[in-house]
Structure formats: structure tokens, C-alpha cells
Amino acid sequence: MKQKEFTSRLIHVVGEEGVILNPAEQEFYVNDWLGKAHGRTVAVVRPRNTAEVSAVMRLCHQSQTPVVPQGGNTGMSGGATPDMSGAQVVLSLNRMKRIHEVDPVNNTLTADAGVILAEIQQAARAVDRYFPLSLGAEGSCTIGGNLATNAGGTGVLRYGNTRDLTLGLEVVLPDGRIWNGLRGLRKDNTGYDLKDLFIGSEGSLGIITGVVLKLFAAPAGRVSAWVGAKELTSVVTLLNRLQAACGPRLSAFEMMSESSLALVTRHLDGHFSPLNQAYPYYALIELADTNLNGLQEMLQEALTSAIDDGLIDDCVVAMNEAQSVSMWRLREGISMAQVKAGKAVKHDIALPISSLATFVKEADQIVMNGFPDLPIINFGHIGDGNLHYNVLVPLDISPSLYKETTAELNKRIHDLVTQFNGSISAEHGVGTLRRDELKRYKSSVEMDLMNAIKRAIDPNQIMNPGKLL
Questions:
Q1: Tens-level pLDDT at each residue, the chain (469 residues)
Q2: Residues 109 and 179 both lie in one domain
């Protein structure tokens, strides 16, 4: 099928307003927000509903045209960017923005995949419910993209990843067939759990067009605290203590190293440490509950006990919402501070919580031995074992040296992650960033199984080619 005929048929399916052919207008869709992944496309297609997605996929299946699904284009691993061939179609779901139903009795929300995450959160709040997925890009990322990458964020400790927050899916398959699994059921033993195939598949098996999400009782409020400690082992032990003392009220437990905090306070105006003294490690802790009575006292008592026992060295409990927000701004400011300070070689890794302190000690030694002049920016969602173990290189580093340094650091850090039975991608996905490393760290059996699933569902290999596998 010639390109002119192909684009004409696309326009017939979704209308002229649903197809972008002008290269200048395609810029947002063919470059990732980090400025690292770049591509070209034959067309950006923006369907309005699942029927149009189905028709587009039937056309692409018939013509064997590769398709790159895209949500808010906020990914960290290049998974939503077309290649440079100009032969791939970008299928954007940013016009599929309907919230179909919010059911406060069943505690579910049904929505199109193109709905912005913050709008999902707001729709839950409107009926006095809570959707706990929260991350830095929540004002622009879409729930479909969150599902495609099994996004994590700050609430995983209490509520789990996006996979754990999902009851049902609607998916358009590579040949255009529609699987309607939009069921708000918590028990369904009628065969394979198909939704789990598509969650985290990064658009390589089909296009998620709809979702049924779990909602929760809305917390009455939160209590936050900032803790300083000399050892990471102490921070991990404190996590265990708080889990025992506070149970499910412990909703977040974030860690920052001193170098991470210093980076934020140095490069971002209006950001200050809550403590008067510097410590090698900090923890940002949050309790939340539907009943605020005694919540602050519970946290203060647990932290006072930890100080008395010599486990931590200092702490401050937020006395109001403004102080809590200020603490969270420090944690959330690390990414921007890194951009201002240099180019980060990033490692989004997951480890058993019991191994975190030992891993960090060995990883620090590896970096210091091989790259003694490069600062380590170590922070993360320590409550679920997810570290962002980054190494900062100068802004003026040459492209060739940056590439060489990145490859060597990745190998050394990821080899160590594997020794600890961890994962080289905790919440950002594989995309093109980690695709070639996957074969090194996945067993041949795992790779065979994933490739077999891919061939069975997408025999023409048109779904997001070059990503993940």
C-alpha cells in the first residue's frame, strides 16, 4: 500500500483532525521529553474511541505497518518514541479522555486510557475516594502509559504498583480485535489473568484503551517526618520498626543520601534541609489514615524511641501541611537538580530490602574505584526496595565519553544488582534504554517465554518494534 493511500485511509477512519502529517506538528510525538530519544513517523494518529483504535489497527495489520502506542509521552526509557525510519505510525491516545464511571460502592473507576493521572485522582476525590498512584509526571502522564509501564511512584509501599491497582482492561490487539475485560471484580478464576500480560508490556502486545481501577477510602490527612541517620542499615531497620508499630498507616518511606539533598538545596531556590545538621542518609516518612486521631503521636512516639535506642540521630515531624509539602519538595526536586548540575547516568533498580545497605556499600566502592571524581546521587522508594542509584557526570562531557562512561557504569552496577537477585528496571520500564541489556540479565528461559508470547499475540511484529524485546 502506497503512503498516500495509507494516510488517506487513516483520515477516513479518524477524520482529518485525528491525523497529523506535518513534521513540524509531529515534533512533540517523535521526541521524548528528556531529549534523548528521537524519531520520525509516517503519521501521528489520534483516535477518539476504541472503535477507531480497532479500525486503525486493522489497517496497520493489513499493511504490516509498525505502530508505536503513546500516552502522555513522559516515559524515562524511550519506549514511546518511533525510530528514525519514518515508516512507523505513532498512535496517540490523548483524545481518549472519558471517565465512564466512578462507583464508590464497588470502589472502582472506569476510564479511557488517555485520561491524565491527575484527573483520575480528582475524580476519585470527588466521591470521597482515593486513587493512590502518584508520581512526578501525574499532571501530564496518562493512565494507559502508567499501565503499559506498570508505574510505581511513592505509594507502592502501601498500595502496590499500577498492576496491583487494576481490576480490568480493554485492549485492542494487533489485528484490530477488541478484548473487553472491563470487569470490576476482585475474584475471577476463569482461566489465565490476561490483563497481566498487557500491564508492563510497553505496548508490545496490544493497545490498552480502557481500564477499571481500584479506589480506596480517602485518608483524612497525613503526617510527615524527616529523619537523619549515619548508616543506611539504620534507615532500613527504622522501616521495619515503623511497619510493626504503624501497620498499614505507613504509606510512604523515601530515602535520600546527603549528596542528593545537597544537590537540591544548592541548585533549587527555596529548598532547605529540615535539620540543622547534615547526615549521610535521610528518610522521608508519611503516615496516612481515615482517622487522624493519634496519628501524629504514633509517629512521634516511634521516632523518639528510635532516637533513644541510637537507631537514628535526629528527626522533625511536620506540624502542618505546609511543612509536609516542603519536605516532599526536597524529595521531588532531585530530578530537576540533577538536570541543572550535570548529566546523570541513571540506574532504576530494585533489590530485596534486606540487601539494600550491603548493595549500596559495594556499589559505592565500585564507583569510587573506577570513577573517583564522579558524585553518587542515591535516593529512592526504599520502602519497596527501589533505588535510583545515579552517577553524575559533568554537563560539558563529550558525547563519546558520556556514552563510554554510561556503558561501563551500567555494566558494573547492573552486574552487581544481578548478584543480589535484583532487577535492572524497577519502575521506568525497558524501552530502548535497557533493551539490549535484558538478554544479559534475563535467563534464556525467560527470554524464550517472552518471545513466544510476543510471536503468539503479534505474529507480524508490528507492535512497538525495537522496544522491550
A1: 788 899 999 999 999 999 999 999 999 999 988 788 899 999 999 999 999 999 999 999 999 999 999 999 999 899 999 999 999 999 999 999 999 999 999 999 999 999 999 999 999 999 999 999 998 889 999 999 999 999 998 899 999 999 999 999 999 999 999 999 999 999 999 999 999 999 999 999 999 999 999 999 999 989 999 999 999 999 999 999 999 999 999 999 999 999 999 999 999 999 999 999 999 999 999 999 998 888 999 999 999 999 999 999 999 999 999 999 999 999 999 988 998 998 899 999 999 999 999 999 999 999 999 999 999 999 999 999 999 999 999 989 999 999 999 999 999 999 999 999 999 999 999 998 899 999 999 999 999 999 999 999 999 999 999 999 9
A2: yes
Task: Tell whether 142 is covered by a domain.
Answer: yes
Q: What gap in Å lies between CA 95 and CA 66, rounded to an integer?
A: 21
Q: Which among 258, 305, 265 has a CA at the least distance from the CA of 281? A: 258
Nearest-angstrom CA–CA distance, 467 and 469: 6
Does residue 467 sit within a domain?
Answer: no
Residue 187 lies in domain:
99-217
Q: Judging by beta carbons within 10 Å of its beta carbon (0-12, 13-18, 19+), is residue 170 exposed, middle or buried?
A: buried
* Domain finish residue from 300, 335, 370: 335
Whole-model pTM over 0.85: yes
- Give the span between the Cα atoms of 329 and 58, in whole angstroms: 46
The residue from 335, 352, 370 where one domain ends is 335
